[in-house]
Amino acid sequence: PSITFVLPDGTEKSVEADPGANLMRTALAADIASIVAECGGAAMCATCHVYVDEPYAALFPPVGEVEDEMLDSAAEGRSTASRLSCQLTMPDRNITLRIPASQQ
Ligand code: FES
Q1: CATH number for the domain harbouring residue 27
Q2: Atom number in ligand 1 closest to CA 87
């Protein structure tokens, strides 16, 4: 399956990902510059913030406690669709992730 990244400038980039692959690592490997992942995936930086809209949001487990705190304290433009991509793994179908405007 594939991930379509919608970048802050509106352009889209699609990359293939294996089910179970970490979404943040997939973004780094695909040179999605808006995903910085400063903390390396420890849910400590929020520079891997993405928006997961419906119907894709339902493919992932709910926001965890540590993820929730980090999104609250560090993510610009948090919305109900906000997730830390380092905490998510690829489902077995195509998904779309939007990158927040603050991560130009
Ligand atoms: Fe730092 Fe996801 S990489 S919170």
Answers
A1: 3.10.20.30
A2: 2
Count of domains for the chain: 1
Query: How many Å lie between the centroid of ligand 1 and the Cα of residue 54?
Result: 22
ipTM for the predicted complex: 0.99
Rounded to the nearest angstrom, the distance between the alpha carbon of 67 and the centre of ligand 1 is 9
Residue 35 in contact with residue 99, Cβ under 8 Å?
Answer: yes
Give per-residue pLDDT as tens, 22-58: 999 999 999 998 999 999 999 999 999 999 999 999 9
d(Cα 9, Cα 52) in Å, to the nearest integer?
Answer: 17
Q: Which domain holds residue 64?
A: 2-103
Total-model pTM = 0.95
Sheet holding 2-6, edge to edge: 12-16, 2-6, 95-98, 49-51, 82-84
A 10 A CB-CB count for 74 gives 17
